Amino acid sequence: xxxxxxxxxxxxxxxxxxxxxxxxxxxxxxxxxxxxxxxxxxxxxxxxxxxxxxxxxxxxxxxxxxxxxxxxxxxxxxxxxxxxxxxxxxxxxxxxx
Length: 97
Fold this sequence. Notes:
The protein is of the alpha+beta class and 97 residues long. It contains 4 helices and 3 strands; from the N terminus they run ααβααββ. Strand 2 (66-76) and strand 3 form a beta hairpin.
């Protein structure tokens, strides 16, 4: 959103270091972000489920699988909204195991 509003790209190193701090060796992290111009959670989930990657995230199971949802909302004049949602999972092993 910051990039869209101001044309400035925030350094990706901050995101990478945050992920690395929470994903130990032997674990895999998968994340999938999407941006919406509405706040209807059913429509959002339906949109997420159109992606194979997102389905893999939602369907990931295991004793050491940890799921995460992060939502950031930006409200503008005249009832305009920008909602960023990221679904993620951390699990033990590699994607092929």
